[in-house]
Amino acid sequence: MLVYQTSVLGSIPSLCKLYIIQNTSSLVVKCLPSKQTSWVRFPACVKIQINTNRYKYKINIKLFILYFIMSTRGYFGYIIGRKKRMMLVDYDANLLWQILVREIYVLVKHFGSVEYLKKAFEKIKIVKNKPNKKQIEKAKYFADLNIGWRNIDNWCSLLKYCQSSFINLLECEFVLNEDEHSKLGYIFLLDFNNNTLQFNHISSDGKITKIAIATIDEIMKFEDMPIKTYTEIIVEMKNNFHKYDEEMLKIENEIIKLDFSRENAKKQNDVNIEEKINKLIDENKWKKKELIMNQRTFYYRLKALNLIEE
To answer: Is the terminal CB of the chain with fewer CB neighbours within 10 Å at N or C?
Structure first.
């Protein structure tokens, strides 16, 4: 086994030690951003992305180069009267203004007025206990693909793709409300009390930097706004999910069948058959990973909002 200490692009905290350990069949990455240790194993000779609590890493095995990108966390939410709802955004919170201004534009067009949009927001429920089957079925379109909606038992994973999206929050009608005293990073607030949008940054020392502010009336006059309607965005999202879910179910069922055949081969001490089945199982597991990577939920939303041009 060979150990490579990688070349690093970017500023790395002194406590952060990063290593790539490669053998013929797999890659192990060890990340020590603080006191926590993360070991992640992937097939070698492929581009992969690894996330820890604080940092995001992109690795190209062939070049043994580790790209370091500081993840940008934050919060987004809305206020109606005295009711304030804020939800955590794990990554790309610096894009909240570009994303949510466009989503609000789409939403006002869909509901016809700010007043009707506010009534839609009032229907969103705060979630606390574990989601039940009915709630999981309704919110499955927004679930963490790495876990799979059928295996999810917590709201954080179930509402992963509600992060950074008012459209998704309104569609599922659930919000995971965060503690008001924990807000740091980029903060986007839709204030229905004065019909304004505010985008600020709060540093660890409590310093507030005002980045952008606008009224809803002002953003409705902005140029280069999305052409797709709310309905078109939701239908496209759900259709993409159903295609993905159907293919994922086929792969998972195939793995179950292969696993059953492997157990029979073990009982019969048929080593050759067992090795062939193991290879087929590994191939199907890799198909699962590829399917998840190709789903690109966040990318398609940016594209729908005219934030990406092809």
So the answer is: C
Helix (H) or strand (E) holding 96: helix 96-111
pTM attached to this predicted model: 0.72
Task: Look at the block and give the residue holding tokens 């992060």.
Answer: 163
Distance, CA of 11 to CA of 24 (rounded, Å): 31
CB 31 within 8 A of CB 52: yes
pLDDT tens digits, residue range 92-131? 899 999 999 999 999 999 999 999 999 999 999 999 889 9
Chain centre to alpha carbon of residue 140? 13
Are 18 and 12 contacting, i.e. CB atoms less than 8 angstroms apart? yes
**Domain residue ranges of the chain, discontinuous segments joined by +:** 2-70, 74-137+151-219, 232-304
Rg (CA), the chain: 22
| Distance in angstroms (rounded) separating the CA atoms of residues 141 and 234 | 10
How far apart, in whole angstroms, are the C-alpha atoms of residue 187 and residue 84?
Answer: 13
Residue 63's identity, in one-letter code, is L
